[in-house]
Amino acid sequence: MAATESTVTSNPSNRERPKPKPKLLVITGPTASGKSKLAVDLASHFPVELINADSMQVYRGLDVLTNKLPLSHQNGVPHHLLGTVSPNVEFTAKAFRDSAIPIIDDILARNHLPVIVGGTNYYIQALVSPFLLDDSAEDMDESCLGDPTGSGNNFIGENDCSNNSYDLLKDIDPVAANRIHPNNHRKINQYINLYNRTGVLPSNIFQGKAAEKWGQVDNLRYDCCFICVDASLPVLDRYVEQRVDCMMHEGLLNEVYDIYNLNAVYTRGLRQAIGVREFEPLLRTCVVKDMHERERELTEGSSIEKGETLFNHNLMELVRSSSNTESTILLEEAIEKVKLNTRRLIRRQKRMLSRLQTLFGWNIHYVDSTESISSKSEDVWTRQVVESAVKIVKSFLSENGTIFGTSNDTGMKIIQRDLWTQYICKACGDRVLRGFHEWEQHRQGRGHRKRISRLKRKAQVPGFVEEVKYSASEQLDI
């Protein structure tokens, strides 16, 4: 009888099966590898909604500098946490996790597949782990703690402050000091503040059972499929240089000038982004004085109306055409620093992905975008990147019989119908927008709202928006 009872008790079939975890697709990889493009392309094969996991693209503003995907390239695919956060706040890993979880729940409730897209890997790690290491430090002020896996996407220069703080941390807790880079001053100060507040060594908090389980693949919050879009370093380096040059011509320096503040703090919010601090010497010593004088000349006796833009030219071209040699030198030095720091970021991202794979056991599927970047061929991109990723996702979704959308692909049909809906914005010169999501983002944009306000004041246009719907077959004939 005892043997029978023992057999029944140990029979796995009699135990309640654990509820399967929600499925989550994560697309990560180094800067400039093509993550955002792949995520949008996957929407042609699966009913997906995207959640941005780039620590600088979450902020409003600096769209060129942070390389946000333009509305015209989003193809009507819903994007969440893209340009939604105030640029002056610190959007921590905890804030990202707490914002992303309810969005994921909503996406799953719509029977769509949530896709996390971005290269800020400590955001992703904080989201998929069942808790943050910071959460285990009870009775501690969150302001004393930061992300436990390293700094954000910004490169912190060696001359930002002295090494006294790092030396102090080494004296207090050499184990904790060994975990972080000597130039990561924000993390150094957080560890020192934590010790001053609690008297507990930081290395003692971030270890033990909690640290062993945190981020391990068998202890994740979701059933995750990790896809890394990667490319060789020489190709990425060349592409980054070209992309920075393009961004400069598209008005990167104008964006930085618009948010320039002589007393700016570069360790919080959007100003941490690569491409802000690098131009500070140029703006501080040369440009600001010249621009204020130029704006004064424009406003005195000019026809420019109050409240309209005073400076409509490309500031980079203005500096380069200037007779001020110092300005030109500082400009070129700043551009080279942006390129250098972006290349350094790519290497840090690659190291972090390797660490997640080797130390935490993440099964990361790599798709290679090297040839598509080098050749600039859409056919190569589709064949080598998109088709490879589609196979990975199909295999992932087939596990446990998970199906997104109904058997007749209702979810995809809804998305396709939305993509065929066109909205014409008369206020913006009959600009055509495709899909309700794209229209809503355009309607909420600052440029559109300014034009609406201006037109309302002048009472020139009685109606501003006209919606035009086409069926798929009719659209193909247009």
From TrEMBL:
The keyword ATP-binding applies. Gene3D superfamilies: 1.10.20.140, Classic Zinc Finger (3.30.160.60), P-loop containing nucleotide triphosphate hydrolases (3.40.50.300). One of its GO terms (molecular function) is tRNA dimethylallyltransferase activity. Signal peptide: none annotated. Residues 1-13 have a biased composition (Polar residues). Pfam families: IPPT. GO terms for cellular component: mitochondrion. GO terms for biological process: cytokinin biosynthetic process; tRNA modification. NCBIfam families: miaA (TIGR00174). Belongs to the IPP transferase family. This is tRNA dimethylallyltransferase 2. It comes from Glycine max (Soybean).
